[in-house]
Amino acid sequence: MTIKLLTWPDDLSAPAELGLWAAFGSIHPLTPPNWPHNSLYVVSDQGRLVARYDKRYLSSTEVSYMYTPGIDPLVFEIDGIRFGCALCIEVNFPELFAEYERLGVDCVLVSLMVDNAARAVVAQAYGALYSYWIGYSIPAQFSTTVPSGINAPGGRWLARCPADGRPSLTVADLDLGARDPDIDEAVRLARPWRRSARAGLYNTKTVQGDPRSNTRTAF
Fold first, then answer.
1. Residues forming a β-bridge with 75
2. Which of 28, 90, 141, 218 could be cross-linked to 37 through a Cys-Cys bond (beta carbons 3.0 to 4.6 Å apart)?
3. How many Å apart are CA 170 and CA 178, to the nearest integer?
4. What is the pTM of this model?
């Protein structure tokens, strides 16, 4: 199954009319006097709200004066491809992206409201480390620093919006069976291997009581 992933730096309206799924940011009000969530809404190609992600890691200002933090990750599925969501400062929390790898997502949609080139580098690194796609979306006015784009599991940018400060659209295929060498290696080989390594692959391979191993002050 192949899904086309679109990154649109500005508002995406009327998903049902266009036959597209959309993920867009908004404030989600809570019952007063509770502060709202900072959220991503997910709307299906039928025009139905199917999910909402609430930002879990907030800045000092946000948690002190503005928002209520969310609690749970969000995973939703489109035609067999699993998506996760993250917002802005959450790019600075690697445990969130490791969690999405454990939850088996194929792509994390990252939406930011910041003019910061380093965030794009970090997001790209997560795609390479965890072997999933990254949809990186920022407002068009910040594109002259780093444009929105779609990053492949191997860490390569598949598609990027122009870096000209104007609203634009970029498209890439999310194909779990892709034969691009870097994507195929990342999805079919690297990701399963890293999972097995984290699951105790080396436990039976270590050596106990060997002085040549235990003594670290001799060649």
1. 84
2. 28
3. 19
4. 0.88
